[in-house]
Amino acid sequence: MTTSSTPTSEADLAIATRKKVTVPEVAAMRAEGRRISMITAYDATFAHLVDLAGVDMILVGDSVGTVMQGQPNTIPVELSEMEYHVRLVARAKPRAMVIGDLPFGSYQVSPQQAVESSVRLLKAGAEVVKLEGGVGMADTIAAITRVDIPVMAHIGLTPQSYHRMGGNRVQGRKSGFEAGSRERLIEDAHAVEQAGAFAVVLEGIPLELAGEITHKLSIPTIGIGAGVDCDGQVLVLHDLLGLSDCNYKFAKKFADLRGTVISAAREYIAEVREGVWPDEAHSFH
Ligand code: KIV
After folding, report:
1. pTM of the full structure
2. N or C: which terminal CB in the chain sees fewer CB atoms within 10 Å?
3. Whose CA is nearest to atom 5 of ligand 1?
4. Does the domain formed by 10-254 have CATH 1.10.10.10?
């Protein structure tokens, strides 16, 4: 892996000469109808690899709780842990935009707490922050953007609302204005846009509703389990790579790294047990 500023291969050179993805660039992508790609990453190695692949945005998501920490949901994730992972990703110096996710409890108490937490993520290397919530988070989004920290909002299936939703459940299927209902989600979308969010994640909602919201807003929508009509898409790295054994309907496995890792480890274990590893080529004299 190369995370230094000196390119050592053609791929590294290509990445080093590509333009940094910024907030105005993301707005231009939406205006020009260029679809936006986002992948989560939690460390320098994978941030570098997805950046080499050409992704537009890297989300240091609080999904770190479930995919790396073995937590049942994202609620236990701490701000200090997010700072740590943002720092690792930022060290890869990606051309992709680096988004730091505000974890549960780091922004819900007051707009002031949200600004303080956002400052911590920016000092760790994030370029923008993401938070969950719609109408109820409008003042908080306005407070963060007032100090020139760009905010990506996140509505629909918001994993930090795990207990209210009764698990990670598709939202927006029933009509009404209660949290998670169809008309309320449209209100949420307008509220985050008016509060100053530069983009919004739409998670776990019917594709027709995601298309309607995308059509109504002027900021980019980034979908996950929200169909093809969003301006962009995001997937959790471990789902995309097939590292987890979960089979979510919305998450295509673009590789089977779980199988690859298990078979590589099995081969290694067998060679150790047979006494054929390390062989002559991998030994010193
Ligand atoms: O934490 C995360 O990975 C996320 C995505 C699922 C959007 O919020």
Report:
1. 0.94
2. C
3. 61
4. no
